[in-house]
Structure formats: structure tokens, C-alpha cells
């Protein structure tokens, strides 16, 4: 049974690659399975599972039929009449796992080209064609539905869909004139024509080791040579066989059928991997085989790597907008095409011809973006555009004038909005107010004046205010002027008519509404304070209901109303600003309130009840009988009273070490941060070297940015005296949010700063400063002894002297002489548990001056 009988149906079934098989393995497999009695359909399905492609079957079939009908000559000579058109071995298939989307998109093209390449397959009958057509229609329908669902969720980036087109594959023309710099390689077929005194025609395929074999000459190595180099080389070789080469005999080498090359497409493409393509293929064709750019891929900076070096940078916008493809080079074996993520993506909204997302190169201007977007639409306002930009954690809007377009550079994430032209007309006027047909009218030969305009509107309304009408008119500089006119006299011919200008607005008031009606204002303890429309007869209670009612804590015993003093007949000034009314409402209403009505511009104040106050809490922690949160009973409740309410101190309490933390106000936080900044600036003054100063300033700014002020600051207290003398100055008044901490008795003293061995040692009663400094190895050479200080557990700070009292749990700190090089951050970290870092920092600055 002939092999070709099985190759035809097998080619129709093979569609997707899996594991590669060599041509010899395919032929051997078909022969073995046929001998085993399997049907053509079974063999086709098994080859499909093994990864055999339609192109491979086509090649095997062509080679089988050619070998069967050939002459058997060693040199594969062809008759002069045979076609020299090339056939591509471009497989256009990834050696990596393929994408389902790619398969659906190319299903129609790949199947159509497969069937078109096998004209003889059509002779098998219409059944095969119908089956294939049904498969293609089904695939196309499924792909179209999926594509519509995906497009709805994606942002549209200009140029990204160009690789989705079935009509634009960037596939090279294999029958183009052979480039002289094309380098030959294994799989290429060379055609050697000899004419003149000797004539011959040879067709040879370069072997995997880069050679062709010529009768009587043996192997000729051509791998890696350009076509031009191979021509010269062959002429020299053939001079040994043919006499008169170069004089009576001419020899020319051209390229026949071409090999395929393997390139890698990596980065932000939909299907990265390795692809076998035509050696004439360019960068665009390689990207097409990788299914195009993904959502974050760049079209502006595609790189081609060859032997570890960048040999080309491709900007796809140059091709799409200018037709330039200078960077779109022909690829070679082993090339790597890298598509990086985009650098900048800008969204164009509004009245551009092509509003969508565009990829911009760093430094490209707004005018370039407008060019990419096709320019302004017909109704666009082109003098000004709006740019929305992320600025740290917030957004900012910039208004860009037309003169700035060429110089204004864009950033990633910018949103450019192009507005619409304003609604202005060259012959429009508007009539408003008390007329029978208000609206917009056109200036014409029959309508040029105010009287003609009112007559066109069927005249004045019955309630029109005739003594005064206003005409709003634009000046040449677009500023606004108002022209007043007695409309009654004008309509009766007693006053000259007024000529209309374009964009004039004529407003005629209603006599019933000409009297001013000011708003009512309510402030204080109501749900929605603000202004409300005046209506005759409105009471305070009515206004309170409009404002959403009273808030908790509002006083009904005393409501205040402030009224403007209006005396149109007054001739002398007065010191009185407003007339005041005070009364109760609700259950506290008096007789005056029952007859009191509000007037325009009245301002009503609802006060807070004097007894109303939200609960305030303090927190007690540490060595107390019942620690926890306690509500303050009175405004001036003292610490001795709250300690008593907690059950008193435990025996293990260290009263002298007790400290109080108090919430820091925003104003206090601001002042403490300024103190830290001033300390940094003072330390920087001693640095003379400009480079070191710049480095120090940079480090200080970074540390300051990371530095966070504590919510609480430390208050130095003496709890022992406060408890011993209730009501005294030591017995301080507590505030909302205060935190009292009574620690356990401590038995250590800490020494740090500029000493030889910073240490924590056991507290020894009666020992002075010198003893503890010696326990830390003594002062170092750079120690600033006179500025040493002691931080006690209760948060108080004292200058360290020989007679300074040292208590359990205290911290002795010795600063350095060189302020610029001393880093206080470790000390701040150590002492953070004792109180506010900002408070301590300010104290340290004061002590070290």
C-alpha cells in the first residue's frame, strides 16, 4: 500500500504540536502501524498526540513523492524549465506550550493554508472539505464570542491589537531577491548555474555540518558565508573542475529553498517562547507568532539581542505613524526578541480623533501625544487641555496652554482631557423673565433691537416690572457690562430703542418678586446648620425642623436671634450692629416666642446646654489594686482621688517612678517637630565640608520623614507627694485621655552615650554619679561631661552633677563634644518608654546648648 494514501487524511487531523518526532520516525511509525492493521484515522490521531505538525507531514509527503519520481542523480539536477520559486520551511510554531487564544485566532488561516498547500487532497472528495469548513466556522464563532467578552474588560491601548489581525501577519516574502548579506546555514538549498564553455545546473541542500557535496570536487563548506562570499568561494572551487572559469565560463550561486531559523520571543508578549520561522522574518513577524503584545508590553522599546548584545531597538510607533521600519531587522538563528513593560502609559479622553491609551517614551511632549491621537476632533477646544496627574498619594489637575504643548512632558498614569468648544454663537440673543415667550432668538434683518425682540416674544407679561430692565452685554475684551433701561418707556416710544449685539441677554423682572427676600441662617446644635429659604411667617421652631432638629445637648432655655437693622430713612450713623432677641423654645417657650416670626437674613443660634458634656476617661495601669479605665466625675478631679477610686497602690509599687502620659494636641505636635528640625539645623552648622553637609542634610531629611511623633507626651509628676498632700499643687488635675503608670520597683541604673562601655548596672543606694560612670568604664575622650543629664522614670530630666540624686530605674546620658557626628536616635529608642520622644528631644537640645 502506498505511503501517500495515509499521509493525506493524517495531514487533515494534525493541528497542534506536542512532542516533536523526526521525519524518519514518522515514516517508520506509519509503516509499522499500517502493518499492524490500524486504520488511517487511528494512525492520524496517534501522530497528533505525538506532536506531528501539518507542515512536517507536507514535507515528508513532498520528499517521498520527489524521491519516487526523481532521476536518482547525485547532484539533484533540475531541468531548466523547472520553477525556482522558493518554498518556506517556516513552521511558525512554538516549541513551548501554545496558547488556546492563539490557536483559535489562527485556526481559519492555518487550516486554509494547510488545505491550500495540498491541492491534491481536494481530489479525495467534498466530504473532507465540508468537515474542515464546519470545524473552521465553529472555531471562528467561539473565538469571536470569547474575544467580545475579553474586550469589554480591557483598556484600549493604541497599537496592541495590530497583531490580532488575520490579514496582517508580517509574513516575509520567501521569493524576494536574496539579500547579499544573507548567511547560509544547514537546511538552505543553493542553486549553482554554470554556463558558457561548460554548462550545468546543480541544486544542493547544505547538510547539518554546513557542507554540500559536488561531484568530482567533494564536500564544499558554505555554512556561515553570505551569498556574496559563497559566490566567490564556489568560483574558486569550480575553477579546478571547469576550464575557463571567469573567462569562457561563468558560475553563479543563488539561494533556492530556504531553511527555518529558531528565535526566542520573551518578555511582555502573550505567548513567550521559541519559534521556528523563515530566515527572512523580521521582528514584527516574530512578535506576531508570539500572539502579540500583552496588556503591559511596550511597543516603543523592543530589543533584539544577538550573541548577548543589543543589535536593534524597534519603535513600533515609527512604523505605524511614519512607515519607518529601520529597527525592524531581519532575524538570525538564535536571536532573542525582548519586549519590556511599557515605561509610560497616558490616557487621552474627550474630543480627540482617537481617544484611548497611548504609550509614551520618557520626555515626549503633549503635542506628540495629540499627534498620536490623530489631532483634535472638529468640536475640540484646542487652546487649553487638562492634565490629571498622580502626585504622591493625591491627584492634581494642571491646565496646559497651547504654547506649552511642545514643552510639556508627560508622565506615566497621566490623563489628558480635551474639552469641547463653548456654546457661543455669532447671532444669538436671549430674552429672560417676564415675557410671554422667553428664550433664544437670532439677530436678523427683521430683529435688530430690544423692542423688536420683545415683540417677537409676543410682548411683555402682565406682571412685568416696567420701570427697569437689564441688558447684559459682552465688551470686546469679553468683560461684562450691564445696561439698564425703562422698559415701559421703551415699548411706548418715549425712550430710544437699543440695538442688539450678539450674546446680549435681556432680563425683565417680575413685579411680584422684585422685592428682596434674603435667606435664613441657623447655627449651633442642630443636625444640618446652614442657610434656608425665607418664607413669610416662619418661626424659630419651623427653621429648627428644616435644619433636621436639635442635637443632643442643645439648649431650649435660651435661643438667640440676630436681626439686621434696616432703616431706609436714617440720616445718622449708629453704633448698634444688630438687634438681638433671646427666648426659650419648646417646653421653655415664653409668650414672646408664640408671636415671634423670622425676617429675611435673620441668624438663629442654638446654644449648647451648660450642663451637657461627653464622658471623659483616664487610664490607670501598673501596680494598683484595680487598674483600668475610669470616667472622671468632676471637671477638676485630681490624681489622688482617682488612685483612691482604684483601690490604692500595691506594696510592690515604685511611687517615685510613676509617670503620666497626656495626649498631644496638633499645635503641640507642630512645635515639637519644629524643635527637632532646629536641632538638626544647629548640628549641621558645624559641618564645613559642602559634600558632607549635603549628605548629612539628606540623611536628616530621611530620618525626619520616617520619624513619627507619639500621640502622647510625658508629664513629670511626683505621685508620692501628690498622695501625701491631696489638693496641693503636686496633686494635679487630670484631663481626658490621661494615662497614669505606676511601675514596679526597679533595681538597675542605665548608663549610655559617650562612655567607654555603655552598661546597665545594679542600683546601690547612696552612690553618686561618679560611681555609675565608672561602672560604664568612665568617660571617653569625646565625652562632654558638663552636659551629662539624668532621665528619671517619672519622665523628669535633671542635669548630671556630682551631687545629683541617682534613683532606681533612671538613665544617665553622656553627650559627645562633636554634635554633628553624634547620633541621638539610639537614645531616643531607649527612652521612648519613658515619654514622648519629641519632648525628650527638645529637652536634650536645651541641655546640650
Describe this protein's structure.
It is a single chain. With 849 residues, the chain is an alpha+beta fold. The chain is 26% helix and 24% strand. It contains 22 helices and 35 strands. A five-stranded mixed β-sheet has the order 7-6-10-8-9, covered by helices on one side. Helix 1 packs across helix 3, helix 17 packs antiparallel against helix 18 (690-706) and helix 17 packs parallel to helix 22. The protein is flat. The chain starts with a helix and ends with a helix. 25% of the residues are buried. The model is unreliable at 1-19, 69-81, 91-135 and 824-849 (pLDDT under 50).
Taken from the alpha-carbon principal axes, the silhouette is flat
Poorly predicted runs: 1-19, 69-81, 91-135, 824-849
Average of per-residue pLDDT values = 79
**Largest beta-sheet characterization:** 5 strands, mixed
Query: Which radius of gyration do the C-alpha atoms yield?
Result: 47 Å
Beta-strand portion reads 15-25%
Content-based structural category: alpha+beta
Which strand order spans the largest sheet, edge to edge or round the barrel? 7-6-10-8-9
**Termini separation (Å)?**
108 Å
Helix tally equals 22
Overall number of strands: 35
How much helix, percentage-wise, in residues? 25-40%
Amino acid at each position: 500500500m502506498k505511503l501517500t494514501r495515509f499521509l493525506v487524511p493524517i495531514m487533515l487531523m494534525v493541528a497542534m504540536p506536542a512532542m516533536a518526532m523526526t521525519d524518519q520516525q514518522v515514516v517508520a511509525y506509519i509503516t509499522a502501524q499500517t502493518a499492524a492493521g490500524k486504520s488511517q484515522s487511528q494512525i492520524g490521531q496517534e501522530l497528533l498526540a505525538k506532536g506531528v505538525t501539518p507542515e512536517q507531514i507536507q514535507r515528508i509527503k513532498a520528499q517521498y513523492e520527489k524521491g519516487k519520481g526523481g532521476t536518482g542523480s547525485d547532484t539533484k539536477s533540475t531541468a531548466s524549465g523547472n520553477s525556482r520559486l522558493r518554498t518556506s520551511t517556516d513552521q511558525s510554531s512554538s516549541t513551548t506550550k501554545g496558547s488556546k487564544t492563539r490557536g483559535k485566532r489562527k485556526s481559519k488561516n492555518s487550516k486554509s493554508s494547510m488545505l491550500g498547500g495540498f491541492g491534491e487532497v481536494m481530489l479525495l472528495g467534498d466530504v473532507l472539505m465540508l468537515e474542515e469548513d464546519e470545524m473552521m466556522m465553529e472555531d471562528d464563532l467561539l473565538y469571536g464570542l470569547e474575544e467580545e467578552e475579553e474586550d469589554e474588560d480591557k483598556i484600549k491601548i493604541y497599537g496592541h491589537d495590530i497583531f490580532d489581525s488575520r490579514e496582517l501577519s508580517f509574513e516575509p516574502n520567501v521569493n524576494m531577491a536574496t539579500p547579499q548579506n544573507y548567511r547560509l546555514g544547514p537546511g538552505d538549498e543553493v542553486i549553482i548555474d554554470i554556463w558558457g564553455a561548460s554548462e550545468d545546473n546543480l541544486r544542493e541542500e547544505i547538510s547539518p555540518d554546513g557542507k554540500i557535496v559536488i561531484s568530482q570536487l567533494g564536500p564544499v563548506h558554505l555554512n556561515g558565508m553570505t551569498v556574496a562570499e559563497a559566490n566567490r568561494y564556489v568560483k574558486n572551487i569550480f575553477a579546478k573542475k571547469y576550464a575557463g572559469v571567469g573567462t569562457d565560463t561563468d558560475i553563479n550561486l543563488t539561494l533556492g529553498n530556504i531553511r527555518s531559523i529558531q528565535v526566542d520571543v520573551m518578555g511582555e508578549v502573550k505567548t513567550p517562547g521559541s519559534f521556528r520561522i523563515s530566515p527572512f522574518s523580521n521582528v514584527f513577524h516574530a512578535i506576531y507568532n508570539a500572539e502579540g503584545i500583552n496588556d503591559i508590553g511596550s511597543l516603543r522599546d523592543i530589543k533584539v539581542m544577538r550573541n548577548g548584545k543589543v543589535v536593534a531597538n524597534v519603535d513600533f510607533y515609527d512604523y505605524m505613524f511614519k512607515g519607518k521600519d529601520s529597527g525592524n531587522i531581519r532575524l538570525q538563528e538564535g536571536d532573542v526578541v525582548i519586549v519590556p513593560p511599557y515605561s509610560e502609559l497616558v490616557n487621552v479622553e474627550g474630543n480627540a480623533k482617537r481617544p484611548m491609551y497611548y504609550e509614551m517614551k520618557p520626555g515626549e511632549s503633549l503635542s506628540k501625544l495629540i499627534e498620536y491621537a490623530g489631532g483634535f476632533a472638529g468640536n475640540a477646544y484646542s487652546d487649553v487641555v487638562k492634565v490629571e496627574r498622580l502626585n504622591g498619594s493625591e491627584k492634581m489637575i494642571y491646565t496646559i496652554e497651547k504654547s506649552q504643548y511642545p514643552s510639556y512632558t508627560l508622565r506615566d498614569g497621566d490623563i489628558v482631557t480635551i474639552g469641547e468648544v463653548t456654546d457661543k454663537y455669532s447671532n444669538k440673543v436671549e430674552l429672560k423673565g417676564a415675557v410671554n415667550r422667553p428664550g433664544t432668538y437670532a439677530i436678523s434683518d427683521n430683529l435688530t433691537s430690544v423692542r423688536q425682540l420683545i415683540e417677537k416674544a409676543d410682548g411683555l407679561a402682565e406682571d412685568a416690572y416696567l420701570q427697569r430692565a437689564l441688558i447684559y452685554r459682552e465688551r470686546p475684551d469679553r468683560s461684562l457690562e450691564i445696561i439698564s433701561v425703562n422698559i415701559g418707556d421703551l415699548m411706548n416710544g418715549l425712550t430710544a430703542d437699543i440695538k442688539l449685539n450678539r450674546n446680549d441677554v435681556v432680563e425683565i423682572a417680575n413685579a411680584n418678586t422684585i422685592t428682596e427676600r434674603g435667606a435664613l441662617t441657623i447655627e449651633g446644635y442642630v443636625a444640618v446648620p446652614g442657610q434656608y429659604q425665607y418664607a413669610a411667617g416662619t418661626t424659630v421652631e419651623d427653621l429648627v425642623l428644616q435644619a433636621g432638629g436639635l442635637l443632643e445637648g442643645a439648649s431650649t432655655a435660651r435661643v438667640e436671634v440676630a436681626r439686621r437693622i434696616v432703616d431706609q430713612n436714617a440720616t445718622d450713623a449708629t453704633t448698634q450692629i444688630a438687634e438681638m432677641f433671646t427666648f426659650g423654645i419648646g417646653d421653655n417657650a415664653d409668650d414672646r416666642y408664640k408671636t415671634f416670626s423670622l425676617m429675611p437674613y435673620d441668624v438663629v443660634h442654638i446654644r449648647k446646654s451648660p450642663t451637657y458634656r461627653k464622658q471623659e476617661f483616664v487610664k490607670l495601669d501598673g501596680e494598683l489594686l484595680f487598674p483600668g479605665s475610669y470616667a472622671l466625675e468632676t471637671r477638676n478631679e485630681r490624681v489622688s482621688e482617682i488612685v483612691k477610686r482604684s483601690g490604692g497602690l500595691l506594696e510592690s509599687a515604685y511611687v517615685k517612678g510613676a509617670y503620666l502620659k497626656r495626649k498631644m494636641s496638633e499645635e503641640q505636635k507642630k512645635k515639637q517637630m519644629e524643635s527637632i528640625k532646629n536641632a538638626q539645623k544647629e548640628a549641621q552648622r558645624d559641618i564645613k565640608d559642602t559634600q558632607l553637609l549635603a549628605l548629612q542634610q539628606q540623611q536628616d531629611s530621611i530620618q525626619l520623614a520616617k520619624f513619627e511623633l507619639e500621640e502622647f507626651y510625658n508629664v513629670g509628676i511626683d505621685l508620692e507627694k501628690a498622695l501625701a498632700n491631696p489638693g496641693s499643687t503636686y496633686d494635679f488635675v487630670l484631663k481626658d485621655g490621661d494615662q497614669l503608670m505606676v511601675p514596679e520597683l526597679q533595681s538597675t541604673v542605665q548608663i549610655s552615650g559617650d562612655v567607654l562601655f555603655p552598661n546597665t548596672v545594679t542600683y546601690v543606694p547612696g552612690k553618686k554619679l561618679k560611681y555609675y560612670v565608672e561602672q560604664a568604664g568612665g568617660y571617653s575622650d569625646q565625652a562632654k561631661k558638663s552636659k551629662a543629664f539624668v532621665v528619671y522614670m517619672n519622665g523628669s530630666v535633671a542635669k548630671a552633677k556630682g551631687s545629683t540624686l541617682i534613683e532606681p530605674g533612671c538613665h544617665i546620658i553622656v553627650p559627645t563634644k562633636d554634635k554633628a557626628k553624634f547620633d541621638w536616635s539610639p537614645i531616643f529608642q531607649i527612652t521612648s518608654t519613658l515619654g514622648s520622644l519629641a519632648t525628650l528631644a527638645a529637652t536634650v537640645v536645651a541641655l546640650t546648648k
